[in-house]
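Example record

One chain of 202 residues, shown exactly as stored in the release files.
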Amino acid sequence: MILGSMVEDRLQKASLAMQTRDPELLQEIIATDWEIDEMEIEVEEECLKILALHQPVASDLRLLIAIIKINNELERIADNAVNIAKRVQTISKDSTLDFTIDYEPMSGRVLQMFKLGLDALVTENSDLARRIFLEDEEVNQLRNQAYRHVVGELNREPGHAKCLVNLYLLARHLERIGDRIKNIAEEVIYLVEGKIVRGETD
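Predicted structure tokens for this chain:
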């Protein structure tokens, strides 16, 4: 799945950029967002063409619907990678703040979730998809942990409020990516089992 590979590449680069704050890498993530957008439109148009011309039924119809929805989720995940890059650019402007958060464990878990999601889709494995729900809970806990750290630092260093808020928003973007991956998992389960589990996983 070409779009999935492209989005995974952006996620890996965003994860690395949070650690290194490399300005060239940050700019690359932002500047290449159009590639994801174009690919998303291309995939959707192809699916709609198949729906219109071949009028698929049953499992084939479920597959097309799942692909269209997952396609949209992938594009939004890439948007969050761009948002992460923009936040890091803002954070980098405040060179006097010593406080930071190590987002490597959280971004690593999100990347693991993403790989699980793609594997579940390619192999049509609903058990693999369900593992993502547990991983998502861990990501949410790491976001809460980041929030507590930032609030504590805000009380000590209110003069760095803008930078600290952006630092916390990195956790929010990672959490949203996790939510999007969970949506992909739900679509895989629907594809494989014909069962809608959206309400069960919130």
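Notes: The helical segments are 2-20, 23-31, 33-54, 58-92, 104-123, 126-156, 161-193.
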